Amino acid sequence: MEILQKILPYAGILLLAYVIGSSSMSFYISKFKKINLKEKGSKNLGASNTLAMIGKKAAAAVLVHDVLKSFFAILAVRIIFDIPYNEVCWLLAAVGVAAVLGHIFPFYLKFKGGKGFATYIGLIFGLDWRLFLAVVVLIFVVAFITDYIVSGTFSTIVAGPVYYALIQPNLWVALIVLFGSLVILWKHRENIRNLKNGKEMKIRSAFQNKYKQAS
Question: How many domains does the chain fold into?
Answer without folding.
Answer: 1
